[in-house]
Amino acid sequence: MATRTLRKALVAVAAATVMTTTVLTATATASADTGAPRPGHPAAQKALEAHVRTGIPGVLGQVRDAGGTWNGSAGVADRDTGRERLPEDRFRIGSITKAFTSVVLLQLEAEGRLSLDDSIEHHLPGVVHGNGNDGRGITLRQMLNHTSGLPDYLDDAFFERIGTTDWPEHRYDTFKPAGLVATAVAHPPAFEPGTDWKYSNTNYVLAGMVIEKVTGASYESEVERRIVRPLGMRATSLPGTSPRIPGPHGRAYSDLHGGPGARIWDTTELNPSWIWSAGQAISTVGDLNRFYGALLRGELLPGKQQQELLTAVPVPVKEAGEGVAYGLGLYRTTLPCGGYIWEHGGSINGSLSVAASSPDGRHTAVFNANGDWGDADLEDVVKAEFCDTAQPARH
């Protein structure tokens, strides 16, 4: 599913002169702005290789910093052909999509078309109602930072089944956003709005619905017009109901959370309408690095909205451990070596991803695994990259 566990969820415009190299083997390569060789990122590469040793088919990563662009990989993109993973491979990014959704809403606020202090009811009358859920008492800000208390529709028994045992028969089903929200509000809220924190995909489905109501255009077209095209993210797409990944890509594999010895399914094709504006996007390591760099450098939002984006509320220790807070579609994570990063990750059947950046946007990193079983959790790769003492301090 889009957030297999909260820890999986943590797993969220670069200079035109940066040169990207192609990985032809399961080892790392690097380039500086001049194209001259430079040392790689051994800690990150070692962490990637460790995932493959656990049985994950393949992992892919790219880092951009003052030294240029580094690409690393291990394992394979396709278990049948043995083709290795390449920087241009596209993959489903799951809940990293949430940052795109948040940015569009913040841009709409900057245009005076809404306020984060508006209630959900103001824009979507009658949509959030019943079983103690009341959109009149929930603001858009609480929706984006997961303090709304709204239940996550993915916790509903039906969605639990279609993400696991019943997935093969439902992989091409189409779901409507209003139906996803109706499933959520059939359950009582987790807490009164603003009194606690709980990750809920329902919040970001509602965010997509607000975008469509305010603009009169589709969610997908607004993300493409406001973010994807201006940043030149040519490999990024929002498929809507299409089950296919366009362009070059490997395969995605999942055990459907069946545990040790479970059948491994090829989950490359699926209809992502069940996660919509909370996790449908497809991208590459390069495009996501470009997005995170631009976002953290303040290139997508005016100052007021940038401050709102990065105003984080504490995440309960029981949910994510020490030193984690949530802004508007981004986690602020304290590093074990000191300092912090902004990040988000996502899981969708067969694809685990994480995107991260230093606070100034000058050091970004994106990693993806094409298998989702066992102990796969790309947070260890992120921490290896940002805490590697062999590299200059960048956080």
UniProtKB/TrEMBL annotation:
Group of enzyme by EC: hydrolase
Domain Beta-lactamase-related: 48-374
Gene3D superfamilies: DD-peptidase/beta-lactamase superfamily
Keyword terms: Carboxypeptidase, Hydrolase, Protease, Signal
Entry keyword Hydrolase: yes
Origin superkingdom: Bacteria
Pfam families per UniProt: Beta-lactamase
GO molecular function: serine-type D-Ala-D-Ala carboxypeptidase activity
Ranges annotated as spanning the membrane: none
Signal peptide per UniProt: 1-25
EC number: 3.4.16.4
Identification of the protein by name: Peptidase
